[in-house]
Structure formats: C-alpha cells, structure tokens
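Following up on my earlier thread - several people asked me to post the actual chain instead of describing it. Fair enough. Here it is, all 287 residues.
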Amino acid sequence: LQDKQRPHKRGLSPRLCFMSMNSRHAFIYLLLTVPGSLSFNAYAFETGVSADLMYFNYEEFDTSGATLNTETGFLPGFTVSASQPLKAINNTFEFSLYGGRVDYDGQTQSGLPHQTQTDETIYRLLYKLSWAPVNDQGELYAKAYWQQWDRSIQPNNGVSGLFEQYQWWTLEAGARVDIYTNNHHDVFVDLGVLTTRNGTILVDLSNAGYGEPVLDLGDGIGLNGAINYRMAYTANGAFQFGLRYTTWNFGRSNVKTLSNGSRTISIVEPDSTTQQLTATIGYSHKF
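Reply from S.P.:
Thanks for posting it. Predicted structure:
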C-alpha cells in the first residue's frame, strides 16, 4: 500500500508586545494502491480532495515564559492533491486552505486583560517525496512545504486591531507504518519530526505612521503525527478518514526600532507555540 499523498483592520496591536505578538494543520495523505487487488505501479496518476476541520491553538510567551495571549477555535478548510509514482518512489503535491474566526484572549500594551476575535487564513503548499518498497508495510518520506498565515486581530472595547502576515518554510522527515491491511481496508499511522525555517512576520502599523515592518522569526522544531483509515470504494476510488496532530514553535524575532517622525518605538515578535488538530474526510481517484 502506497500513501500519496486584506481586507483587514489596521492599527496598533492589543498586544504587539511593543516588544508583541506559523499549518495543520492539517493534512490528508492519499493512498495510491489497494493491496492484493492492484499492483504497486498499476496506475500513473492520482488526484484527491478532502474536507478538513482544524482546531487551532496558538500561544505567545514573554521572556520569562509567561503567557502573553492565546488564540483558539475551529477553522474549516480543504486540501487538494496530485500524486505520481515511479517504481518505489512517489511524488505528491498538495494545496491546503483554512480560514475562519477564533477567540483571542490576551492583554493590552499596558497589561490590562483584553478579549476579542481574530480572523485567520492559512495557506499551505506542500511537496512530499516518499519511498515504499513493494513488499514493505509502510514508507519513509521527506516533505518541504511553504506556509502563509494571515492574522487579523479585530478591534474591540476601544482597543485597535492589528494585521500580521507570517510566512515560513517547513522541512519534515518521517515514516508511515501500516497497522491493518486487506484488499479493501487499511489503517496506518504517520510520525514525523519537523523544523521551521526562514520565517518572517509583516506587521501593519501604517495607520500609526510606522509603515509595514518585517521581522525575522526564530527557527523552531515540532512534531507531526496522524492516524488514517482508508476504504476502497471502487477499483480506482477510495475514501479516507484521518486525524492529524501537528505542533511547532517559533523563536523570538529580532528587535526593530521604528519612527513615525514624532515618536520612536521598538517592536519584537515573542516566542510562540502552535498546535493544530485536524480531522479530514477525503476521496481519491486513480487514473
């Protein structure tokens, strides 16, 4: 079995950490053969689509490790994929999109408690290279994926909103292990380790006269794990159900000093941790 897989509110931040405030995402990996009923390379191409629901949990920390703010809530989304095998090697490309509004719980720049909501949009472009010998129950894989996260904290109770845009690369290596397999059903797990690289954050402070500065995020590490069930529907089609957990962190950014002509400020992006728990329901078809 082979697994193939603004408009926005501008202004000052409720907690930019003047010194203030990276998906899961979520993935579905689409399988390319039905063991016992199809040969390993019996098809040349496969496409897939899934409906996803992500529980999003983001948290920022000050230099002492205390929580500055959290954002939590559900983000619906979808994933489309295309895969092509070449003997024991498989190439998979995916595009995922998630969006919605979650709860923000933090504090103002003066340290007063502040609650509002945040509009979130997450884009992900992924390439996966996997190796799975014909007679082995599983595979080894490597992934490289680019992500963009648009974060628009909404104004509330007289506190201005803030738009931030994160972009970064993730590199991941891992393995898939089949737990149960027959001609029509398959249960398998994925487990990978990852690192975030070359991350940036654009902060929109144009309404206050500071422009749109870009900070460099610190690299981080994380884990990616999933359990999936696949059921053959026709000779060339299959349904898949999955649950995936992904977590990673960003390190503290560089400090940037800004001036609007009358006032000078310094901004920094604090350490953060992201957790994503994503349920998926998908369909794939071989050609």
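Confidence is low (pLDDT under 50) at residues 1-41. That should answer part of your original question.
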